[in-house]
Specification:
mainly alpha, Helicase, Ruva Protein, domain 3, 65% helix, flat
Amino acid sequence: MQNKLFLFFLLALMLPSSHAGEAVPVANDVALEERVMAVSAELRCLVCQNQTIADSHAELAVDLRNQVRDKLRQGMSEQEIKDYMVARYGDFVLYRPLMKRSTLLLWFGPFLLLVVAFGVLIIKLRQRRKAMQQAPALSADEHARAESLLSGADKEVQP
């Protein structure tokens, strides 16, 4: 009885894969599809932000790829499509934005943050070193008391 039940579950698991078909290509024109992917590789997914629309599976990325495909069918060049997307979504839509006045922070912001973080680290280390040098030294009595407390703590820990 258990073997039949086990066999039934295996067959039930295999059933959905038996009806799977071959993926239908998005475009019959392979050259057009290559151009779509080339342009899509240069545009950033506005949802994912760390992927191109060629790599993303977000609905917006799919819509943008379809727009790129439609624009290419209409005869627009790759540069015209990128210009259209920049006009509509801003410079951020370009995966490698052009260096211009409005994108300087985008290009140099990470380096600026790194320099500021390094500066803060150096200041904090100097403050710590100065505080350690200015810390009052223990007197002989305080040193002896600390030794007795530490040696007493060792005895409590050991059984």
